[in-house]
Amino acid sequence: MGVIPPAVDQVLIGAVDRSRNPDLKLALVLGLNEGVFPRPVDDVSLFTEGERTTLEATPLRLPGDRRLRLGHERYLGYIACTRARERLVLTWSENDAGGNPLNPSAFVDQVRRMFPFLTGTRMEPAIGLSECVHPVEVLTPLLRADLRTRTEIHRLRGELLEVDDWLRRFDGYRGMLRQERLGADAILKLFGTRLRTSASRLEEYAACPFKFFVTAGLRARERGRFEVDARKTGTFMHEVLRQFHVELARERKLWRSLALDEARERIARIAGEQQGLVAGGVLAAHPRSRFAAAAQTRLLQDFVVATIEWMTAYRFDPIAVELSLGGEDADLPWWEIDLGDDRKLAFRGSVDRVDAAPVPGREGEVCLNVLDYKSGQKKFDELKMQAGLQLQLPAYLAALCAVADRSDLLGGRRAVPTGMFYVRLKGPSSGAQERDEPDSEVRGFEHTGRFSFEFLPLFDARAGEGGSGQFNYRLKKDGQPHGNSRELVPQTRVERMIEEAGVMLRHMGREILGGRIAVDPYRKGSELPCTWCSYGSICRIDRWTHAYRPLRPLLTEADAG
Question: What is the bridge-based pairing of β-strands 447-452 and 414-424?
């Protein structure tokens, strides 16, 4: 509740449920629009209204009844309209901020039925030229100006002088945003001569240098909330899989050695332990959160079981989960890349899973795959990889090949990069649209990425029998990859991608320490990074007039060579 000012005549500003002062002379009720007040009832129940009606005939009582919540909204409307002793003003909008039409609230219709003699007053915005906050807002006052009298002409001339001063200041602000590079002193204070960064941060730079500057340079952050979101759910799932692997490593067991029932039991136990620990215990704080955690637990059980079943044809074994690279107490040291002029890029990260298998017939060498878990449908896009937007997998694999020999991870063996995959943590589901339709199973836990044709027998021992279904590829009758099997590539291509990742990191590191902070988002078809960027209020980009950067590879052939 706000009180302005604390005197005999006061203005009280507050929510309806906290505004029960009976001595108000005037009450202004704002936002009486459909979908705003009354607020729509969120349907978060697992039961339909019909199922709830059936359950009401039993002694069982369910919280959060829809009709009770609707009744509560009507009660709030009653409070709002009965506080004033002398005058009540109800307001609603005809359009939203985007110009889309809005309907009045049901409360407005009810008041009109009760008092049919009342008429509404349409309020015209009286924004003066000097009150505009964007150049396009200047047009409306100019078009509406009445210049029939000398007084109005003089008044408009004075306001235009104020607008001219405002536009100069606005142009100065826009000029600051058009600045494409910071000075060397500013960059030195922000990053020093050793740029510590990660794949996700560099992908932000590839999407828009200004976003990298705001997040990694200015370190702008949104305030965290104690609620379940995709990030906290992902943290929970990653931590359960990490503890699962740690337990097996401590017992000197491999994933493939577990019986399927034992694997399910382990995941269930570990998930129960982690539910109250991850993200401050938010997953255990509410019945709805606990239900979500239980669903994620079943998903992890299915994923581990599917992985173990695939291992009858998959010759790799997980050797690390949530492998940390760079920083204090990390599993592996920083991967440092020389940028010249006594500057370095120090690369850090966390690899969701690393799988390894001995190279057949070559002592002292081990094939390495990196896997990154995703909750959504993320496909490996080679153009995005070459543009730095999907740098994570090749950069992790390059980092492991560069620094793994300095640890006990590979036991002194040399790393041979052979595969990189996004793994979708979403199990098989029904493709039916209605409950009574027959199920058409949608495959889950898809692996998408790039892997070596030379080492195909290690990935899929049943390749000649049609494959195990773990990877997306096809072979022709002569045993060669089918033309549309883009994910199965020559070993030289895998190694080339690793080399290109190192060159891209060096290129972006030099650009960042060179001060580039341009507002320069990419465009790929209709895809724009601005769509999901949280910093539009800072860069003030105008999507109608901005010339977006076409997506293209970061490196030329000369750079890659």
Answer: antiparallel
Angstrom distance (rounded) from CA 534 to CA 530: 8
- Give the pLDDT band (50/70/90) at residue 427: low
Q: pLDDT for 70-113, tens place per residue?
A: 777 888 888 888 878 888 888 888 887 667 788 888 888 888 88
Residue 287 structure tokens:
């019945």
Q: 39: Cβ–Cβ under 8 A, 6 or more apart, which residues?
A: 73
Give the span between the Cα atoms of 448 and 459, in whole angstroms.
Answer: 13
The 3-state DSSP composition of the chain as helix, strand, coil percent (nearest 5) reads: 40, 20, 40
All structural domains of the chain = 2-114 (3.40.50.300), 129-177 (no CATH)
Element (DSSP H or E) covering residue 203 = helix 199-207
502 to 387, 392, 443, 555: CA distances (angstroms): 13, 12, 34, 11
Spatial contact of 306 and 445, defined as CB atoms under 8 Å apart = yes
Tens of pLDDT, residues 153-165: 556 666 666 666 6
Buried b (16+ CB within 10 A) or exposed e, 335-356: bebebeeebbbbbbbbbbbbbb
For the chain, state the CA radius of gyration: 31
pTM of the model: 0.72
Take residue 345 and report the two structure tokens written for it.
Answer: 């890029």
CA distance 419 to 370: 7
